[in-house]
Structures are given as C-alpha cells and as structure tokens.
Amino acid sequence: MSESELRVFLSVDIAGSTALKDLKNYTSILEKYTERQNLARQIKSRLGLGSDNDDTLKQIILSCWSEEDIDWASMIERTFTDFHIAFSHIIETDKVTNSYERYPWKALGDELIYSFSVKTRTQLNKLVCAFLNTIRKQDEKLSKKNYSRLKGSAWTAGFPIRNRKVKLPQPRLFYKEMNKEKEYPYPHTDYLGPDLDIGFRLGKCTWPGFLVVSLDLAELLADKDTKNQVLLSLLGWTKLKGVWNDSPYPIIWAKLPPGYKDNPKYKEYNDGAEIESEWIAKLKSKEFKKAHLLSSLLKSIRLKLHPRLGCVTPYIRHEGDTVPRQHIEILSILEQLKNNPTGDSGKQSDGSRISKKIKAALKTTITNTLEELLVTMGEKLKDKLREKARKPRSHRR
Prior knowledge:
- By secondary structure, the chain is α+β, with helices and mostly antiparallel strands.
- It contains twelve helices and twelve strands.
- Strand 10 (about 230-240) and strand 11 form a beta hairpin.
C-alpha cells in the first residue's frame, strides 16, 4: 500500500496586526522625531541649557527610542521568536515529537504554522495542550501592551487519500541527531487538500487566548480518556467557504484541563468582546468538558454527513485503528498504479500484454460511448430548436 500518514497542524495567528502596522511604521518616523525634538528643546529651555548643540539633542532622542516605537516588523519577528522558543522548550522537555519537527512548517503573513506526524492519541493530546499553553503564556504578556494578541487553530489531515504531499524544488538541508546526519524534510514538502482548507478557514472562528479545533481533531482527542485530557466545547455552527458543500460546520473550542502546569490565569476578553465576536457571546453560556465526554456527540455529527464528501472517521494506523474498507481499496489501487509493470521500455510479461490490450479496449469503449452521448445530446437539442420554431410567435413571448 502507498504510505498512509496522519498529521496535525497547529497555527498561531497575530490578532490586531493590521492596526499594529498602521500604528508602528517608518512612514511616521519623521513626524514622531520632530515631536520629540520639539519636546526636548522645550525641556532644555526650561532648564536654561540653551538651544545649541543639536547633535547632542539628536543622540538623546535616539537613545530613548526603542524599536517598539516605530517598527512593527521587529515586533512581529520578536513575537514569533518568543513563541517558538517557548513552544520548542515544552515539546522537547516532554519529548513529544522528533527534534526536527519542532520547527515551523511555514509562515503565512502574520500566521505561524507547525506540522507534526501523529503516532498516538496521547502524543496528540500533549501537542495540543503544549501549543495552547504556549499561546496563553505569550498572549498574557502581549495583552498588557495593548498592541497585538495571539489566537490559535488546530486541525488534522490524512494522507494520501483526501490530502496530498507536494514536492517543492528547494535545496536539501541536514541536521544532526545522536551524532548522525539526517535530512531535514522542510522545505521540500508542502501539504494541500480539503482538510487543509478547513483548517485555514477555521482561523476566523477563534479569539485571542483560545484555540479552535477541527471536527476530526476533536474526535481523535475524544476517542479515549487520556491523562491531562484537553477540554472541549461545541460553541455553534457556521458556514466555511467551500467546506462540506457550504453546509454548516461545527465550531469547537479547546481549553486546558484543570491543574495543567503553568496555565496562566488572565482576562482574555473585555465586556465589549461579545459584540465583536459571536463566539465570545456564545462562550458565556457553554460548558467545557473533558474531550471523551463529547465523543458520542461528535460521532453523531459525522454520521449525518453525506457519503459523497468522503469524510470517514479519523484513524491512526500506527495505533492499530481499523482502516475503512474504501480506504484500503483506494490505497491498494494507488500501490498498483505505483508499481504498474507495463511501460514503453523493457520486456513485458504475458500479464502486461494482456493488461495493455484491456487498457486499449477500455479506452476505445469509453471514447465511443462519449461520442454516442454527444450525438444523442446534439439530436435532442435540434429537436428542441425545431419545436420552438414551430410554435406561434404569441406563444414564444
């Protein structure tokens, strides 16, 4: 069978970054400098120091000027760096995943995204908790500065059936682990597919200090009662563009379990937040429960989905989960396509020659069927045009 893998994607987004870029940028540097220059001159005058020696004045102004006064790019860079250091420390200390995977998969504007290969539900729960804990720690610090905040979204994607790995033409990178040199997978691989689209759409359905999770991820977290299990709450439903044929999608938020280590306690939103966000308004009337207590509810949601969407119950093959029959058949077909013995060069076996004849006959049959269908459609169209032409003019109005 072709390689089958489940990956989790964890995205941290800087909320308020657009306003930050307008407030802290180089285009206003001259205006701000002039304001400080005038203020410094007034102070010198009051102190009776005279108005000479502008070079000294300039040095004083610049020495009191931090990057936060003018450079939004430095602020965003520092925010991402601080987040990455804190998150890496947790997952390395707890030995949650491979060392190379602690680096971000990619950055999309003001969004930093991590991707991890999932082997067990326990590992998945640890990753989600570590990620949410890091978001809350860093968001608490940022909330005191009133410039920007951090919010998160998380989802899973299975490969290679619903989603695909795409190879990129990038240089090969290597890292050392246990005195052995290994190839680092980033940035060779990109991930595309409907489950990735769901994840990117979910980002608008969260709030600073919180984490929204996909249905698939919520189901996996709820499959069994694990230690320090994350809490979940179904806040409501909304349409995500292009997702599930534009049918409503469940919005599920995650919360750290009681007593989780270093979980900061702070005010994530003010009283006016419920006007800005429908989810904050709904949050006040919802209860968070241990994930496994929502298992039946989440499974009932999936059972109502149309089979045509191809949304099967998520599974982790590494844990020995039952693979849906249709996935087994699809993976088998993919494997056969990969190892197809027919080709233009080399000697072909009898089976290969027979396969080639069947393939040619099948292609001819399909072509003939399409031609017949087009002829039939053409005749029907002609009949409709003749019938329309025979009708009196008054009936055509």
